[in-house]
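Today's session is about reading a structure prediction critically. Students often jump straight to the picture, but the first step is always the sequence itself: look for stretches that repeat, for charged clusters, for runs of hydrophobic residues. Only then move on to the predicted structure, which in these notes is written as discrete structure tokens rather than atom positions. Here is the chain we will use throughout the hour.
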Amino acid sequence: MPDRTTAPEIREISDLKLPLPTVHTLDNGIPVYETRMGTQEILKLEILFYAGRPAEVKMLTARATASLLREGTENYTSADIAEQVDFYGGTLSTPVNLDASNVVLYSLTKHFEKLLAIVSEMVTKPVFPAEELTAFGERNIQRLSVDLMRTDVVAYRKITELIYGATHPYGYNSSEEAYRALTREDLVEHFERNYHAGNCKIFISGKITSAHIDLLNEYLGKTIPAGEADPPVFAQYLPPPQRVRIPHPESIQTAIRIGRRLFNRSHPDYSGMFVLNTVLGGYFGSRLMTNIREEKGYTYNIFSSHDPMMYDGYFYIGTEVSNDLTDKTRTEIYKELERIRTELIDDEELNMTKNYLLGNMLTLIDGPFNVADVVKTYIAEDLPVSKFAELVTTIKEITAEELRDLAVKYFKKEDMWEVIV
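Below is the predicted structure for this chain, in token form.
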């Protein structure tokens, strides 16, 4: 029997190594990143196409195209796809982020070929039924009308629009007009221009055998057409920061968003900002939480986030408070930004933050699917997997002085955009 009277020894996390993937190349040139780990008879396949917003000609085509991939192909109806995936015990989704569109399949190893045949059809022979596009538009218009009743949604949409510009891929917002303007021809054009081998990377993880890699080549390496991807060109948009207040009369809460444009993971200051953001508002023990939730009781939740995309990134602070506490909360946020710029973080707080982050990093590489997700994060952004080790080193070694210097550089009040709804 285990000894439950003695607490286990507390140890520092000293060794964090990300297992490196094995790389294969399919006949059509698509790279496959294999994470062969685990004991359960299950696989995860993720097919990534750089077919997100930066690749759009028309707003919302990236989201619509990805969503309709599973709504019918030349040989399968949407009902056929759903029934077959369910019958073979798989899970299929088509998530989209700002930069990429993905097809994600979880499958038992013994049924992988059956489900891979369906996925192959989805990414090579979709039909984009017009009636499904209409249904997609109506669903999203209804969801949007509900979302726009929430002050936090309105504030988030507005601050990203202000930071990047209303026509920038990272800044534009969905609208009823944009959904209704979509046509089947728009989706076909977006698909044909972006869903090709030159725009694709594949990640597979789990209990993999060489036979599974051969199946990938048979169903994807011989079917996805060749092509070349051109990097997007963004218009420069650098207006001075603004303070914006938007009335929302029926709401009993006010949403506050304060932030600025930053950078992506390739920037030399990214790792340091990862730590600095955590100290400020990145976890439950952060300064914003301690002050504005625990001590002042102004809000239930407050946070800060640094969101990196492939070509850019931004930082913002977010919270919702009762209307009468808006100005007090705003004042305290700027106090915390100024304090982290002028005072050194003490050893106890810094060590607690570092231990928290290292514990999180440990969970990120627990199991084959988690490891594959980390690998995909770097590979998808054309970064070496060694960036993970660099981030771990920064977390362990960064000093209070270095963090203060970063805060002085990036947390100036005059550089912050502010949206209050």
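Discussion point for the tutorial: The two ends are 57 Å apart (CA to CA).
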